[in-house]
Amino acid sequence: MTKRPQNMTILDVARLSGLSKSTVSRVLSGAPNISENAKKKVAEIVAETGYQRNEIARSLRSGRTGVVALVIPDIANPFWADVARGAQDAAVNEGTSILIFSSDWDPVREKQHLQALVKSRVDGAIINPVRDGLEDIEQFNLPIVLIGSSASRFPDMASVSSDIEQGVALGLDRLASSGLGLPVFLVGDNERSASERFLQAVRRWAAKRNVDCSGLIVENGEYNVDGGRAALERILATHAVPRAVFAANDLMALGAMQALRNKGLSCPDDVAVLGFDGIAAGEVTTPALTTVAKPSRQIGDEAFRLLMQRIEGGQGDRMTLPCTLYERGTLPARVNEPQPALMD
Amino acid sequence: MTKRPQNMTILDVARLSGLSKSTVSRVLSGAPNISENAKKKVAEIVAETGYQRNEIARSLRSGRTGVVALVIPDIANPFWADVARGAQDAAVNEGTSILIFSSDWDPVREKQHLQALVKSRVDGAIINPVRDGLEDIEQFNLPIVLIGSSASRFPDMASVSSDIEQGVALGLDRLASSGLGLPVFLVGDNERSASERFLQAVRRWAAKRNVDCSGLIVENGEYNVDGGRAALERILATHAVPRAVFAANDLMALGAMQALRNKGLSCPDDVAVLGFDGIAAGEVTTPALTTVAKPSRQIGDEAFRLLMQRIEGGQGDRMTLPCTLYERGTLPARVNEPQPALMD
DNA sequence: ATGAAAGCGCTAACAC
DNA sequence: GTGTTAGCGCTTTCAT
User: Fold this and answer.
1) What pLDDT sits at residue B109?
2) CA–CA dist B27, B20 (Å, integer)
3) CA nearest B115 in A: which residue?
4) Any residues with CB less than 8 A from the CB of B237 and at least 6 apart, and which?
5) A232-240, long-range: CB within 8 Å, 24+ apart, which pairs?
6) Where's the HTH lacI-type domain (chains A, B) (predicted)?
7) Which of A67, A78, A140 is facing B78, going by the closest CB pair?
């Protein structure tokens, strides 16, 4: 009966192999200048006993834990789950684990998480800040990569975000190509800065295309299906039926479709709906949701890579990934020539 | 300019407060028999410097990391994301962090994760095993709580799962109450044991209700929307159009709805569809998916609690949570009296 | 009530 | 190439 691997220390391996602690340690970390004999001996003992290095002790010396944190608003939201998946996949190959924190759009919760995270001594963190409260974390000079639209507010930090401006233009041009005018807009209200950036992109697009956007109809709502439904219902109650709805995220777009159905309005014949995210749930509705897709997995993937660079002492820059259009069934066919893409 | 909290040690606090290392440590861990003066002094210094205990060093001594692992097939699958959310919420309150591993239905991946997890010296793990390979982990006598249907294969381990048998009966009774006969079944094939349990429950129900189930039509498919669509398409190609489809999970049920639509079949008038999971995406389809819902968040929540009990040295038992029916739009109205519930 | 000292399991100088 | 030794930051006897 050999010792439980759990309780074996490097000292036991040393004794069993007739070598010293340090030599065993060297073999285990693949240091150069080790005799074949030592390597073999250690390998034997390890195989025999199932010994595993205690990573905690290693961490204590090296200061690195092999764990990074991912702080997102809601793991149960498909978009964020996809981002997590991307980061996760990238991390596995590096032998790194990911600690996921859902802040649930709650700044207090987020703060708790941030504290928990520096306490856990993670090597770095990928963060989508709910609000602007990054001050607490900045002082710990922990390697950080920002994701999402708040990146623009911290110009000196590494970040990866999707190109909202390009995405909005993509969507608005597509709407225009169906001969629809400016749509009404549904934006989330627990992601203020994201909404602002979205609307700003709309105005910029209008300016470039010489479209009058003085009478923009915008409704806020919670960042979920019910929020989208309620938001469109409010618009329907107070305005003429719009020709098109552009939601700043897919969940709200799905809600908008429900609101239309409830009113007996047909989509896309009466009202066109355009989403923003590209979540899988948009494929299963009738009609399927046409949407501007953010590269969610890629965002997670690139953010992780950037973070690793930063951890390794590199600079890690800012990255903007383009959006693409998932053409499905909630827009009418095109009637105009597609516009040339907007360039800055 | 005070020292960076990151580099401050308990020794610095000791020096600054004129106390000894040990006393400071005692104050910090709330030990009894400390003078008010010492408490005050330490509190001051901590407030002043922002000192934080190094959890890694603590872990090294105490053997506990304050981190638990959650191993699930796919974080991007809404059902599992919900489970994760439940566990997460429970963990926050306990000051515990959760390491999430997606095995992607891949036993090799899972094995990697399991190793990574014992290396990280987590305090315990909540696991939904892809296949039967739990041998590797059992030897580490790490506190473990199983979730999902495989729990039944490890009768001596703590577990929480949903009551498949009751859920299946619930669904089948509901189908029967609409005057529909036995449905065709769509089950996932990368979750063998779950599928078996599901079908077994079907047979048990048939026996209890005196229904002939000799000619059961069952089709396997990947555990996702496309898998469900393809599976039903295969059935449609080789059999008469069934009156009802019962999918072992919601994603496949959604796929089934797509297959029907593609064939020009109406749901629920031509074919009824019943799902199993209760994911949010089922609410947004037209018609919305009627489904037997597993208590996903609660599963995560209870699993975490059980795990904590086990970590604290308790036994932690086995727990089975009932399913409920989300009555939505993919079944025709009831025509028969509801059957009395099945009892064992 | 507090201090001194001995480790937790490992790595990294520093010797030889 | 390998062994010796001194910590990493903390908790916990054991004294006092």
Assistant:
1) 84
2) 11
3) A52
4) none
5) A232/A184, A232/A186, A232/A256, A232/A259, A232/A260, A233/A259, A233/A262, A235/A184, A236/A263, A239/A184
6) 8-62
7) A78
The more confidently predicted of residues A21 and A151 is A21
Closest chain A C-alpha to B286 CA, distance in angstroms: 6
Among all chains, which residue has been given the structure tokens 């080789």? B238
pLDDT of residue A3: 46
* Cβ-nearest to B55 among A88, A102, A121: A121
Across the A/B interface, how many CB contacts are shorter than 8 Å?
144
Q: What pLDDT is attached to residue B3? A: 47
Would you call A204 exposed, middle or buried from its count of C-beta atoms within 10 A (0-12, 13-18, 19+)?
middle
What does the alpha-carbon distance between residue B273 and residue B291 come to, in Å, rounded to a whole number?
A: 8
Complete edge-to-edge strand list for the sheet that includes strand B218-221: B218-221, B184-188, B244-247, B272-277, B290-293, B324-326
Q: A93 in contact with B at a CB cutoff of 8 Å?
A: no
Residues of B with Cβ-Cβ distance to A286 under 8 angstroms: 261, 285-286
Check whether A136 has a pLDDT greater than 70.
Answer: no
Of B243, B247, B251, B244, nearest in space to B275 by CA: B247
| Sequential DSSP letters for A280-333 | GGGGSSSSPPEEEEP-HHHHHHHHHHHHHHHHTT----EEEEPPEEE--SSSPP
Chain C bases closer than 7 angstroms to a protein Cβ: 1-13
Residue A191: is its pLDDT beyond 70?
A: yes
Q: Decide the pairing of beta strands A97-102 and A67-72.
A: parallel
Query: Using one digit for the tens of pLDDT, what is the confidence trace for A72-123?
Result: 998 989 999 999 999 999 998 888 899 999 888 888 888 888 878 877 889 9
Per-residue pLDDT tens over the stretch B126-149 = 999 877 666 666 666 789 999 988
**Would you say B139 and B320 are in contact if contact means Cβ atoms under 8 Å apart?**
no
- The pLDDT tens digits of the residues spanning A285-327 come to 989 999 999 999 999 999 999 999 998 878 878 999 999 999 9
What is the chain A residue with the closest CA to B52?
A119
Distance CA A15, CA A13 (A): 5
Give B82→chain A minimum CA distance, Å.
5
Q: Considering only CA atoms, which of B125, B118, B6 is closest in space to residue B56? A: B6
Q: Domains of chain A, with CATH numbers?
A: 10-53 (1.10.260.40), 64-159+296-319 (3.40.50.2300), 164-294 (3.40.50.2300)
Q: Dihedrals φ, ψ of B187, to 5°?
A: -125, 155
Using CB atoms, which residue from B52, B102, B286 is nearest to A118? Answer: B52
Q: State the burial class of residue B333 (Cβ atoms within 10 Å of its Cβ: 0-12, 13-18, 19+).
A: exposed
Name the nearest CA neighbour of A206 among A176, A240, A229, A230.
A176
Cα(A16)–Cα(A9) distance, integer angstroms: 11
Among A4, A49, A75, A265, the residue to mutate for chain B (most B Cβ within 10 A): A75
Ranges assigned E (strand) in chain A: 67-72, 97-102, 124-127, 144-147, 158-162, 184-188, 218-221, 244-247, 272-277, 290-293, 318-321, 324-326
> In the predicted model, what is the mean pLDDT of chain B?
90
pLDDT given for residue A314 in this prediction: 80
pLDDT at A142: 86
pLDDT of residue B2: 45
**Cα–Cα nearest to A283, from B229, B245, B54, B42:** B229
Q: Near strand C (CB < 7 A), which residues? A: A 7, 9-11, 21-22, 25, 28-29, 53-54, 57-58, 60-62; B 18-23, 26, 33-35, 37-38, 57, 60-61
